C-alpha cells in the first residue's frame, strides 16, 4: 500500500518534513485545514503503541487504536 498515492488519489496535499528538534524521533504531525480553521495533531509510537501527543500545541497524551481504511 502506498500512502502517498492514496493521499494523491483523495486530493490531499502531503509535505514530508524532518525535524530533529522533536521530542520524539518517530512522530507524525497532521495539519488538517478546512474552510474555517486549521487543526494540528501530533502522534508517536511509545513503547510500541501509538499515542496522541498534542492537539493544537496542547500536550494531551492518549492511547490510539489503529484502524485501517482504504
Task: Pick out its properties.
four-stranded antiparallel sheet; single chain; mainly beta; 70 residues; 41% strand
Q: Give the SSE order as H and E letters.
A: HEEEE
For the sheet with most strands, the description reads: 4 strands, antiparallel
What is the strand tally? 4
Shape: globular
Poorly predicted ranges (pLDDT <50, ≥5 residues)?
A: none
Instruction: From the alpha carbons, calculate the radius of gyration and give it in angstroms.
Output: 13 Å
**Gap between N and C termini, in Å?**
10 Å
Question: Looking across the biggest beta sheet, what order are the strands in?
Answer: 1-2-3-4
Mean pLDDT: 82
What is the count of DSSP helices, taking H or I runs of 4+ residues?
Answer: 1
User: How does the helix and strand content classify structurally?
Assistant: mainly beta
Fraction in helix: 10-25%
| Share of β-strand residues | 35-45%
Write the layout of secondary structure elements.
Layout: H1 3-9, E1 27-33, E2 38-46, E3 49-55, E4 58-63
Antiparallel strand pairs: 1-2, 2-3, 3-4
If you had to describe this structure to a student in words, what would you say it looks like?
The chain has 70 residues and is mainly beta. It has 1 helix and 4 strands, in the order H-E-E-E-E. A hairpin with a 2-residue loop joins strand 3 (49-55) and strand 4. The termini are close together.
